[in-house]
Each structure stands twice: as structure tokens, then as C-alpha cells.
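Hi! If you just cloned this repository, the fastest way to understand the data is to look at a raw example. We've pasted two of them here, unedited. The first protein comes first, obviously.
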Amino acid sequence: MDKQKATLLLQDGTVFHGTLIGKHGTNGGEICFNTGMTGYQEIYTDPSYTGQIIVNTTPHIGNYGVIDTEVESDSATIAGIVVNSFSEVYSRLDASQSLNDYLISNGITGIADVDTRKIVKHIRSKGAMNAIISSEFDNLEDLQKELEKVPDMAGLELSSKVCTKEPYFVGNENASIKVACLDFGIKKNILRNLVDRGVYCKVFPAKTSLKEMEAWGPNAYFLSNGPGDPAVMDYAVDTIKEILALNKPVFGICLGHQLLAEAVGIKTYKMHHGHRGLNHPIKNILSGKSEITSQNHGFNVVREDTENNPSVEITHVHLNDNTVAGIKLKDRPAFSVQYHPESSPGPHDSRYLFDDFISLINNN
């Protein structure tokens, strides 16, 4: 059977023609690339990728299908995928379905049989930009009109759209440590790592008030990862300021890291093309050791603001571009990192950060 054609149009007018994967239709979002060699299922279900079109640099995608137990959220909220060689046949014995069927069931339109290396080099040169994938529009002028409707990621608030609508519990209710987790787009493996260390978690929607969270009596607070621009999340920054005033332990990951920085007066900015992959080198300044990390972010904290803030210490730096990758507060028991120590997918070099959080709680 002949494959259906699809078109990828970038905001700067660059066009790629390929074949349709996933749902027949038209989807737009910010195009970015992930350099991970495995773990496409975890990437597609990471809420931090909401509204983004993912270019996989690994040439073969779909060959091990999809398994229900390895999702990072209840559904995939990406705007689309771009791959080189796509396999509708999967070889993993315990897979529940093909990736193509999964994409269709989640309403995701993708494109295959394109030169992903060329696309990645283009994004690295020109920067992340909006793009659109379509199997419906043959006329580029019509497709351009559809692309113009796609909102820019800068200034976009998404966490309140992807977070849980009602609080829920994870872990053993008899555990000695209770952590209130603010859900800005939390990954399930973060909660697994906390529960594995004897934590009882209550996950709250992004816009929950401090009063409601404190009524549960948590020992500490966790600030999750998530999508969108931290600079427009005043509701979260105000709540985090209130949390910090309690002097309880706080740990933030990715967007949570950026929001903690905003709460202490450090600005954030949109990066040229971001960090997304499983092989990003980080130096822990406190220990002097390096670690290979999993990352997924298009925003970062301003290094100059961080260096000039007397109450903040830089704890981790990205060795490729010297950007700030971790901070801790000098006057309060709070710290955060820009990358993903739960690393699903990815290396486990940074899992110690969850142990550091538990020690901070026990010693507070």
C-alpha cells in the first residue's frame, strides 16, 4: 500500500516532504530535537514537551513499539514527531501496540522519510522556531496560514493545562516523610524515585494555594518539571515565595528550578535551541565530579543574575555552554537543578539528588 504524503513547513519557510505517520491531519508547534538514542515513548509522554514537535536524531523509531508501564504521563501531548526511518513493525515481546497506533490514538500527526540530520543542523543554526506538519494541505500558502495560528512558546503558560485537575496520593500513607508536589507537568518516574525513598506524596494542581497544601501537613515541597515559559507563571512564583517563607525543604527540577530562581529574583530567558537529550555533561561544583544527564528544556536562568544574587549559590554548570544547571539557597533549605535526575530515559548519574533531598528533610 502506498504511503500517504506529508509536509513539514518551518516558520522561516523551509519545507520538507515525506510520508505520514500517526493521525491524518495537521498539527503545529515549536520544533526542537532530542539526541537520545532510546526512550522515544518516555519522551513523547513527558508533559514538558507539550506543544512541541520532536525531531528524533536516532534514525530508527518505532522498532520496539509501546508498553503501557513506561509512560511518563497519562497521554502524549506533543504537537508532532519528525523521524527518518519509521517502523510500524515492532519486535518487543511485551509491547502492547505499535507506535503508529499509539500516535493515532493520541491524535498526533508526524512525518517520516525526511533528512532529520539536515533538519537538526538547520535548527542548531537558525534556532528553535514554530513549524507545522500536515497530510491535509498540499498548497504551501494554505499551510503557511495554518502555521501563523500556532502560538509562540515564549510567553506561553501551559502548566495549568497539563497538570492534574484534582490532588492525588502516591506511596505509603504510613511513611514518615510527606512531600507536597506541585504539579506543573510532573513525570511519573519522579514520583517513583520519591516513593522508593520512603516518601508519601500528595500531588497538587499547579494553581493550588499554599493554605490548601499546608492543611495536609507536608514535611517538604517538590516543584516539578513542566512546559511553557516560567516568566509568565506569576501564580507559581508567588506560591513558591510563600513556601520559602515557611523554611521547609524545597527541591525543584527543570521548570521547578526556573520557578525557584524567579521566586528569588533571578530572571529566565528563552534559549536559542535548548538542551534535549540523554548525554549532557554537568559538573557538580560542590563535589568536583561530572555526571552525564538527561535534559529537556528551552528556557534557562540568567547566569549574571544568579552570580549577583547574594542568597544563591551555583551548584552545577553545563560543561558544553557553561549555563547554570543547579542552584541552592544559602539562607533556606532549598535547591534545584535544570536537568532530570529521574532520567527516564537516560543515565542514572544524578539519582543522588533525591537522596540529598531526603537528607535535607531529615536534618531540617
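Ok, and the second one:
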Amino acid sequence: MSDGPTITTIAQRAGVSIASVSRVLNGLPTKAETERRVMSAARELGYVPNSVARSLKSRRSNQLGFAMADIGNPVYLAMIREIQPVLRAAGYRLVLHSTNADTDDEIDVLRGLGERYIDGLIMIPLRVTGEHLKMFAAARAPVVVIGSVPEGTPVDNVRTDSREGVRLAVEHLHGLGRRRIGFVNGPLDTVPGAARAAAYAEAVRALGLPHDPALAEVGDFYRADGARATARLLERAPDVDALLCANDLIALGALDVLRREGRRVPQDVAVAGMDDTDLATLAWPPLTSVSLGSPERGRAAAELLLDRLASRDREPRVVTVEPRLVVRASTAGDDAPGEPPAVDASTVDTPARDVSARDGSAVGETVGDSGREAP
């Protein structure tokens, strides 16, 4: 079987020297007629440039990486939808890596930047360790971190104020007359889990409600774990009348449990999530959720990375995306039925109110768009 055309066969077809073919294929100056003959012969023979060999010479791969905890999480998918076109327009391919929130794997990815298989990296670590901070400082290619890192960390950073998002949600539930507001969280040793736990405690105390430990439960950031954590919370505090969930996947698990126990949403228990992913509009009832601006954060990270590639010596920059609360029927529905209607929910736009003012008042009417706004 033929291995395909080589510079030798191209030189023979074009009637020029091998050196001339090499110069043309590597973009070096040469006579216009020689270039025309070489490129014509290359096309006729079906020559495909060896991008690996080129990258070894230029020490550039024209690829940029995105390392996230779970490629199936719609939060990260919303980011990818914004990151990829920005990078593609600049001539880069996007390489995806799912770490399963394994810190050792994340450190390996950062260490591997020296091998030049990618020219830069966007990373979302759920846990930021001392080893992460050392690797950020020593990275041999540009890195942009999405999520909170300690002040002064020498890395470009895109973040959101999830504590403010929790406050918006708790105040919304309190404004609806809910007084036993439970909280279903992810692991407390993660950056989002710790921040949202602290914000929940602050928010209920600010409203004059007791911070009852029985109303808080910890699981993981997945639907099944959210269901198990919700079941534990309800068993311990059956009088809960509202649930704030640390992400939309947890909220879906909570809705499963409430439906199984015959509790109506929102009449008996109001439910709010965080992230405002695609899942929020497809849930039943449609889910009130705090948007943490996943698309905006993804786009900002891509732009920061390209800017860093163009200007290696500038000071690190921090971009902050403000949260907003998107209100749907899971908290504010007047007559939400107990079962979904017999229609395809993916084809129905769900009215929602976008709430981002400090006083929690509605600042504009929006229409659900399959979760374009998410953390």
C-alpha cells in the first residue's frame, strides 16, 4: 500500500529540486513560478501537510486545551459553545480534556504543557491546591483559570460571584413567604461547595432566619447524588418549604424525590437551582435557577488566552461575570400541575423573569432559550 505522496514524488511531478519543494511547503520565499508548479503537483498527488512535523519545527501546535471536571455537564457544554468559535476564528483547534475533578490529573495536564501538544490551556479546577498554584506560576504555556483562585495568583482568571447568586436565590424564596429554606450542596472541599455553603449561612442569617444545620445537606454535583441528599434532608426536616440546590443537576434530583413523595412543586416545596443550564428549561416544572454566566465566562476565557498568547509579558487580568436569578415555575408558578403536559418540552419557550437587582426586583422579561445563560 502506498504511503502517499512525498516531497520526492512532488519534486518529480513538478520538475524541480527536492530543496525547492521543501522551501515551498514550509512557507519559505521562493520564485512564484516554482511555487505554482509545486503547489499544483501537490494538489494533483493529494499531498496532505504533516502538521505534527511542522509543529516540531515551529514549536507551535495551533491547538488550545480546555480541561474541565465532566464533559457531560451542561455548564461546560455552554462554555465550549462560546470558546470554540473564538479560538477557531484565530486559527486554533480546541482540545477537550475531562479530569473527573481529579487533582492529580489536573496537575499532569499542567505539567504536560511543556510537551507542546497544546499552545495554551483553559482550566476549571473544582479544588485549588498548593500544587495547582505552583504549577500556574511555573506553567510553560499560557493558562487561564475559570473559577476562584487566591488573590495575587499569577494567572489570568475569569470568575463569578456565586455567593451573590446564593443571596439572590435565598432572598427570592424568602420573598415568596418561605421560611424553612433547605440547601442541598456539593462537596465542601471544592471551591464552589465551600463558597455556596458560606453564602447560604450568611443569607439566611441576614434575613433573620435561624441557621439550622438540619436544613443543609451535602452530596455531590450530580443528579443521583442530589436525589440521595434531598431524601436525607427531607427525612431530617420534613417541614422544609423551599430548597436551594447548588447546581441544576442536584435540583433535578430534588425534583425526582419530591415527585416520588407526592410533594407538589412549588405549592408544597419551592425549588431553585444554580447554573441556569439547558436542564432548567427542560425540567418540570421549569426550574428557577441562578445564572452564573457560563457562556460569558467561556468567551472571556478564550479572549484572555488569545490575548496572553499575543502578549506574554502583560500583568495577569481578572474578569468577573455577575450572577442573575432567572425565575420560573418551580418557585413562582401559581398553578403548576403535578405532572408535565403531553407536549415536547424542548419545543416550548418558557417565560422567565431575569432578576439581578440588589433588591431582588424584576428588571426585565426574558424568554427561556434552552439554557444559553448558565455558571
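That's it. A detail worth noticing about the second one: The longest helix spans residues 294-310.
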